[in-house]
Design goal:
262 residues, alpha/beta, TIM Barrel, globular, binds 3-hydroxypyruvic acid, binds magnesium ion
Length: 262
């Protein structure tokens, strides 16, 4: 049964920030490259990505084999979406757009089996090794190892922040600066002072409630700043990394050519 390395890292005394990449393309190869390059976590992005259930399962397997923790960003907080991801063997879920306490409770219940939650049980699927492991052990293990990460990324969520973070069973709050900035009326300006103020508010509230803090960034510089700021977990999207690499490569090659021709 799976061991959730991210959960261990987050709970360790010697604090070290975990780093993840969101992958929304159906590519086990991309997942392996992310993991082999040293990222702790691969987020298999089923909210904005274009992935089938089969893609998700294959990408979870690829991440595990390559030594990274596979989390799935689900389509929504609907328990049916969460169940699908967990049954594929995801070590946890990123749940977008959590805005109310009751919704957060439903998320935790969807990830955890009774007595802590209401996750539907079937042992014939990948998470339970297709029924080859003792059922009681599996249930206990899955409840301990699974990770619940909820996104706070809207004005409404900010209004209910304290209530949401008081829900038992939330391991990590994840700040989605893009959605947050759009929802607050600053359309994508993730460094707008009002957006930064809300981000700091989320950080303080999470610390108060003993919840870990994750945040999305767009660059290496942004990731470094957020690590210094105290984030437990820092992510970025694979396209941000690739665009930067492509742009640097082609502009570097072209400017060399111009220099040589002068
Ligand atoms: C956001 O910035 O809104 C996110 O969800 C990051 O992926
Ligand atoms: Mg978002």
């Amino acid at each position: 049964m799976f061991h959730n390395k991210l959960k261990t890292q987050l709970q360790a005394e010697s604090k070290s920030t975990a780093f993840s990449v969101f992958v929304g393309f159906p590519s086990t190869q991309m997942v392996e490259m992310v993991a082999y390059n040293g990222f702790d976590v691969v987020v298999i992005d089923n909210e904005h990505g274009m992935l089938s259930a089969e893609n998700v399962e294959h990408m979870v397997i690829a991440a595990e084999n390559a030594g990274a923790t596979p989390l799935v960003r689900v389509v929504s907080s609907d328990p049916a979406h969460i169940l699908k991801a967990m049954d594929r063997g995801a070590h946890g879920v990123h749940v977008p757009q959590v805005e109310e306490k009751e919704q957060a409770i439903r998320v935790v219940e969807a990830v955890k089996y009774p007595p802590f939650g209401k996750r539907g049980a079937a042992f014939s699927m990948r998470a339970a090794k297709y029924g080859t492991v003792p059922i009681h052990e599996y249930l206990e293990h899955a409840n301990k190892q699974s990770l619940v990460c909820i996104h706070i990324e809207s004005g409404k969520a900010m209004e209910n922040l304290e209530e949401i973070l008081s829900v038992e069973g939330i391991d990590m709050v994840f700040i989605g600066p893009t959605d947050l900035s759009v929802s607050l009326g600053f359309g994508g300006s993730i460094d707008h002072p009002e957006v930064l103020k809300s981000i700091d508010e989320i950080y303080q509230a999470a610390r108060k409630h003993g919840v870990k803090v994750g945040i999305h960034t767009k660059s290496e510089e942004g990731a470094r700043q957020r690590e210094e700021w105290g984030a437990d977990y820092v992510s970025l999207t694979v396209t941000s990394l690739l665009n930067e690499a492509f742009k640097n490569y082609i502009s570097g090659v072209k400017s060399k050519k111009i220099e040589q021709n002068q």
